[in-house]
Amino acid sequence: MKAFRTHTGLVAPLDRANVDTDQIIPKQFLKRIERTGFGEFLFYDWRRTPDRALDPNFPLNQPRYAGASILVADRNFGCGSSREHAPWALDDFGFRAIIAPSFADIFANNCVKNGLLTVVLPEAQVELIMKRAQEVEGYRVTVDLEQRQVRDDLGVAASFEIDDFSRRCLLEGLDDIGLTLQHEPEIAAYEARRFGAR
Amino acid sequence: MAVELQKPIQERAPSAAGPRTLFEKIWQEHVVCDPPGQPPLLYVDLHLVHEVTSPQAFDGLRAAGRRVRQLQRTLVTVDHNVPTTPGHLPITDPIAARQMDALRRNCQEFGLELYDIDSPDQGIVHVIGPELGATQPGLIIVCGDSHTSTHGAFGALAFGIGTSEVEHVLATQCLPQQKPRTMEIRINGPLPEGVTAKDLVLGIIGTIGTDGATGHVVEYTGEAVRGLSMEGRMTLCNMSIEAGARAGMVAPDEVTFNYLYGRRFAPKDAAWDEAVARWRGLKSDAGARYDKVIEIDAASLAPFVTWGTNPGMVVPVTGRVPDPAAARTSAERGTAERALEYMALAPGTAIEGISVDRVFIGSCTNSRLEDLRAAARVARGHKVNPKVRALVVPGSQAVKRDAEREGLDQIFRDAGFEWRDSGCSMCLGMNPDVLQPGERCASTSNRNFEGRQGRGGRTHLVSPMMAAAAAIAGHFTDIRRWRFQ
After folding, report:
1. Which residue among B56, B59, B168 places its CB closest to the CB of A176?
2. Quick check: B459 and B443 in contact, CB under 8 A?
3. Distance to chain B for A8, nearest Cα, Å
4. Do B31 and B11 contact (CB within 8 A), yes or no?
5. Above 0.90 for ipTM, yes or no?
6. Does A134 contact chain B (CB < 8 Å)?
7. Would you say B183 and B219 are in contact if contact means Cβ atoms under 8 Å apart?
8. Is a pLDDT exceeding 90 seen at residue A197?
9. Cis before residue B90, ω within 30 degrees of 0?
């Protein structure tokens, strides 16, 4: 997994609540058996009109947000289906961090496994960042995982919380399967205790 | 698949820790180790696998040279992509065919048994787990699918995971997990006539919202929950995720034991008696504390219909589409306005005045025998409205066989419903069963998200009885006033 320490990037606003993973990556793209190449299908039905042309009204299609690497959205981002294709698509599109007042559990878990940082900030802070992303051309923020802080050049310095283990995994880019396999003796002992010798 | 999935840990000191919730008991029993600086490592008793969320996980195993640690604790089927036309054929979508082939190859390479499309046991993974008796009280069950919460109906701790975690479980049979908080949702009194488990869970989501249970494992308690069949409890737990819950659960009782008795992977003979004795202890102790408690009066519930684009946007069938102007915040107003625009509905429209083009009876929420019986009871002696195309998709081949044995298929066919093979079908439209843009559907599935059943499709979530009634009337209608024949 790729590591995340600190990242400064252009912010794209998605001023919607309860953005579900069906919107992030619609089902017709879940049939691929690879982990990569989902970026072009990100928010497909929102980004494209029914005749598949790019909808100029959708923020990610606007030239001013080209190259955005931080997404700011409203509450309960990533709800619904457990599809890890959602973080794969966000990552492949170029996002490194998502800022919102809350995230759905499975989605947030899936993000950590892919080096994508979900930053929970109070609603007022998210609103402010959203507003600036909409109003200030070229608006960038720094997401600093080491300091657990989001900063901009206009005075925002907001702390966020993240559990120590997820933080460590992200900072070090840890393979958590490898970490679990270090506990092989304990797993074997548990199985023997519970199911008898094999 | 092993016949016996669980044995008790002998060393565990009983009642050393004071009153515990059902969740706490299962959690504690499954902690393999609690390393400093890491979340506890939990043991997974049963891992359900399907074609959509597993190919990249098997690739990961291959790349790292890892094997599947516990073949007999891994149950594999195809459900999301399968066509539901008779014989599950033809598979006209080459990308879907490739994904199903990938699962076949992976099962072969890693030594896993697969319930393939030609298997008599094939079906939606959340239907066949219980049906085969693999889902049992006290287990930890995971699957790369958010509706894994279904299995909590048996007093198991069951939750959805992503593909990286699927790989983790395949390789280690364990998952590092942060401990969730607990929530009790108590439903006081019995469900009124015409109000089903589906209406109950829609009512709950409408009350607490689509993120009302985020970060929590919900235990459903109270008279109305005790009164539900296993099928009803599965419907209830299935949609826990739609309220954001990590899992939903119902403590096992005689209803649970009667359902499981004699099923293929259920314990047999002396092991059965021993298992039941152990399962009886799987309930929250008197005085056990939850982080949050919500009480709902069953008498306040009605047959519900969703009007918007998430499952929390719900009103009684006798109600009207709400006015966004009445929303509490501007953000909520914006969300409601957007939903109404997508659904092409005006505020104040009577729900019973909304006509439908399509009806879908199926999905891991409502495709079991009891659901089909309920829908058939409504359909018997009636005809599907000529403007409506209606589909019945049994959850598994076993459900299909049982329904046909009872003649339910004939009732549906006589009324003008299409009778299909098993699969996820139009719940998410990964197979050819999709809505066309602008089509409006009464659906027994679990998500009314934009485009869920097909781009531009408009989904209204209802119970199987309400769906069947809508198919016949051509619009939503109150099942409590239905003329059963």
Report:
1. B168
2. yes
3. 27
4. no
5. yes
6. no
7. yes
8. no
9. yes
Contact assignment for A187 to B146 by CB distance below 8 Å: no
- Binned at pLDDT 50, 70 and 90, residue B331 comes out as confident
Tell me the pLDDT band of B290, cut-offs 50, 70 and 90: very high
Q: Is A37 on the interface with B (CB under 8 A)?
A: no
**Quick one: pLDDT at residue B162?**
98
Residues in chain B: 485
Per-residue confidence at A2, pLDDT binned at 50, 70, 90?
confident
Average pLDDT, chain A: 96
Would you call A172 an interface residue with chain B, using a CB distance cutoff of 8 Å? no
CA–CA dist B355, B470 (Å, integer): 8
Q: How far apart (Å, rounded) are the C-alpha atoms in residues B339 and A132?
A: 26
Structure tokens at B366: 């409502």
Residue B11 has pLDDT above 80, yes or no: no
Out of B52, B98, B449, whose CB is closest to A80?
B449
Nearest to B451 among A26, A31, A75 (CB): A26
Helices (H), A25-81: 44-47
**What confidence score (pLDDT) does residue B256 get?**
98
Q: What residues of A are in contact with residue B214 (Cβ under 8 Å)?
A: 76, 102, 104-105
Give the separation between CA B446 and CA A130, rounded to whole angstroms. Answer: 31
With tokens 């019973």, the residue in question is B352
Token pair of B291, please? 């982080």
| DSSP H or E run through B131 | helix B125-131
Q: What is the dihedral of CA A144, A147, A150, A155, to 10 degrees?
A: -120
Q: Is the CA virtual torsion B417, B422, B424, B429 positive or negative?
A: negative
Amino acid (1-letter code) at residue A137? E
Tell me the two tokens of residue A33: 């058996």
DSSP annotation string for B353-364: G-B-SEEEE-TT
Helix (H) or strand (E) holding B76: strand B74-77
Rounded to an integer, what distance in angstroms lies between the CA atom of residue B142 and that of residue B130?
A: 13
Q: Strand, helix or coil at A16?
A: coil
Torsion of CA A59, A62, A63, A64, to 10 degrees: -40
DSSP B399-411: HHHHHHHHTHHHH
Contacts with B210 from chain A: Cβ below 8 Å: 18, 76, 79
Which residues are paired to B297 by β-bridges?
B188
